[in-house]
Amino acid sequence: MRKDPVEHLLRALYSAALYLLVPVTVYHLIWRGFRQPEYFQRWNERYAAYGAQSHGETVWIHAVSVGEVGAAAPLINALLRERPDLRLLVSTITPTGSSRARALWGDRVEHVYLPYDLSGAVRRFLAHYRPRLGLIVETELWPNLLFCCRDQGIPVYIVNARLSERSLRGYRALRALVGRALRTLRAVAAQSRRDGERFVRLGAKRDAVVVTGNLKFDIGTDPRWQASAATFREHAGSRPVWIAASTHPEEEAMVVAIHQRLRQRWPDLLLLWAPRHPERFRPASQAAIDAGWRVATRRLTRWPDPDDAVFVVDTLGELMDFYACAQVAFVGGSLQDIGGHNVLEPAAVGTAVVTGPHLHNFADIARQMQAAGAMVVGQDADAVADAVEALLADEARRSEMAAAGLVLVEHGRGALAKTLALVGRDLPAPPAT
């Protein structure tokens, strides 16, 4: 294959810049480690220093953090169920993603941190884990990773692919390089037509972009959710409950203010509070204590009692259980300009959903949820408080929203089957019987 001299130059400049930034990566790990100690661990994986022993061939799925691990869960569960012969490797970048993967699959999959996009580290990663196929979830576009996979003949797909207008603009400086990297892909399995078009605009081959839908609709049902809700009620009583989930630091004062307002109308109202990141568990608890409330946490007491005003869900992997315990769910990352988080999860357990206005990471799902009458979007914290208050006071409307959300989730299923059919051509053949 004839080498592209422009690609060679762009890769050289990009790689040189990354190597110059290696000291910054060390500083970043230390800085994050003071906030989340897990960042002090497993540094060898960040730089692909594994030792001499290599692994057998794998099917590799990369999911950067908690949200992407959740999106990949239906696909990974299907591969575990239908192809138990495969050796699955899940890579993440964040410790919370690692914890979520271990909580979901334990030792049934291998886990590793994806190394920084240094050409040498990427080649060591590929040589060590020997992937036969790479499945990258959503929007992780690392040029050296994609080029090295192509150079070693490893087919790579982006599955559940999404690309917002904001993210597209963010790639402007690296567009020439990222566009060439995208053209190495076997296929882009896009969540929507709009996402697919944006990948084409960034540089993907049009005939390699396929709209498969959103894997988040293929969320499974789990009897545990309703069992948890029943146990919760045994401890907490029959009082009204709302949940603030996946909140970010700038939203914490807003959550406290909303709860203060709502408890003026319902003095026994309970807030379930699940911050997005573990380093915010303690600050959220302290904010609630400073507001004068009795606070309990999942790790310390397991369940709230009738006198608790706030119950902080300071664990990972249990959010669906607690969505099922609430009448109304506020999904965070939407009052702060983060882009929102997965609003399908509360809908899937029959809980009415409220968000703020910043939903660019879930734009298509948000439009569908609003059109179906399954979600209310407040333009600011006061509007969110209005919506939560109105829903807590109106059981009939809550029921209508819950039913609409359940129907939407059910009708949206199908991305899993399409994705499996697409990537199946590059899965290793099953062993002969």
UniProtKB/TrEMBL annotation:
- Keywords for this entry? Cell inner membrane, Cell membrane, Lipopolysaccharide biosynthesis, Membrane, Transferase, Transmembrane, Transmembrane helix
E.C. no? 2.4.99.12
* Cellular localisation: Cell envelope; Cell membrane
Provide a Gene Ontology MF annotation, just one.
Answer: transferase activity
Q: Which reaction does it catalyse?
A: lipid IVA (E. coli) + CMP-3-deoxy-beta-D-manno-octulosonate = alpha-Kdo-(2->6)-lipid IVA (E. coli) + CMP + H(+)
Q: In which pathway does it act?
A: Bacterial outer membrane biogenesis; LPS core biosynthesis
Please explain the role this protein plays, according to its UniProt record.
Answer: Involved in lipopolysaccharide (LPS) biosynthesis. Catalyzes the transfer of 3-deoxy-D-manno-octulosonate (Kdo) residue(s) from CMP-Kdo to lipid IV(A), the tetraacyldisaccharide-1,4'-bisphosphate precursor of lipid A.
Q: What's the protein called, per UniProt?
A: 3-deoxy-D-manno-octulosonic acid transferase
